[in-house]
Amino acid sequence: MKMRDQSSKSWPCRISVLNVGGASAPRPKATSLITTVGTLMPLAHSVATYLTGSWPRRLFLKQLVVAFLAALPWLQVTGAEPTIPPAPEGSFSIVVIPDSQKYLGRGTKSQAKSTNEVTNAALLQHTRWILDNLDKQRIVFVSHVGDIVDRNVPEQWAVARRCMDQLHGRVPYGIAPGNHDHGRATQTTLFQQSFGTVRFAGMPWYGGAFAEPRDPAASGNNANSFQLFSAGGMEFVILHLQCNAPDDVLQWADGVLRQHAGRRAIVTTHMGLGPLEQPKQKDEFTTGPKGLMKWKKCHGERGNTPEQMWQKCFRKHANLRLIFCGDQSRTQAMRLTLQNDHGKPVHWLLSDYMQDVGWWLRAYRFLPGKNLIEVRTVDSHEGRLCEGTKFLPKPDEHQFQLDYEMTKPKP
Questions:
Q1: What is the pLDDT of residue 64?
Q2: pLDDT digit string (tens) for 279-327?
Q3: In sequence order, which residues have a C-beta less than 8 Å from that of residue 259 and are 6 or more positions away?
Q4: I need a surface site. Which of 159, 170, 270, 373 has the fewest CB within 10 A?
Q5: Which CATH number is correct for 92-403, 3.20.20.30, 3.60.21.10, 3.40.50.2000, 3.30.200.20?
Q6: Within a 10 A sphere around the Cβ of 248, how many other Cβ atoms?
Q7: 320 forms bridges with which residues in the sheet?
Q8: What would the pLDDT profile of 275-286 be if each residue is shown by its tens digit?
Q9: Phi-psi category of 79—alpha, beta or left, where left has phi over 0 and alpha has psi -120 to 50?
């Protein structure tokens, strides 16, 4: 019998189409891989009739088995991509919503000429994921780092409010106005109309807001607020401060932190980590030195840079140990631990995934018995953990843990 050349295109099926097992082969999707392997199985009858002689039949079957076995590890991984497991008993979680200005429709930056209704599928899905996981992840608080809108217009504020309405009355939450949430970089009038003090009055966890700012249009009516909650046998106070908070806001924050010195303190403010100096060229947003930023976007001369906010307020308080921020989508994720005036570590944590296709949010799982916080970045739409992005391809930039003292070690 004349044997066919193995590379001939006249074969009814070539196992090489699977393209698995090679180091350079791209990771196949579970669904496409299952489809590809599945389509090979019904070929058994046609192969038996098409191939004559024992050698080609044995070779074909050998190739089929090798390819299928090579596919099994991918099926096990991609068929059930890494997801966040349920929070164990005794733990609790704080969820941080990063910048969420992924708006579509009429008048948005991404679809300026559209006549469609304004929507924000990502923010809506974030809040749905939180509701679906309140019990499973033992979520006790939700914090938004700001830039809840892309353009400071009523249409987008209406959408933002409808999305956050899902959480209202279900779980304590706060919002720190970002630079996009300010009009002309100086006032928060539309934020105040949508998320003002009256919205939260009567909530048992609502601590209050800065009531006597120098400029009420800039800093009043819940643009700077604090919340109180308990979890894991610990008492917390969390402040939500507007982007580049002016001195009068920081003086108010000082008073809140002193008043609640017996509670563990957290701050959420929009700007924090990113390029140290304001980039002059576009590439400097990704290539420039990074750390606690020394530049600002809001409030003109009255505004404080993240570095100034740290020096003037944050570092003075022994109970402040966590600071959440966003703003820098090209830095995307970053963490920095500084020592405060009392010799205690303070963790700054940036998350801003605006320039990634994933709908990422952060879950901070507190494990009191281990004195650890597990940080998990999860896609609220697909439920998978972030294993890397274009800007930060390493998983440990998105999934990591922090030392955080909660229980005294036994003698």
A1: 46
A2: 998 888 988 899 999 999 999 999 999 999 999 999 999 999 999 999 9
A3: none
A4: 170
A5: 3.60.21.10
A6: 17
A7: 265
A8: 999 999 888 898
A9: alpha
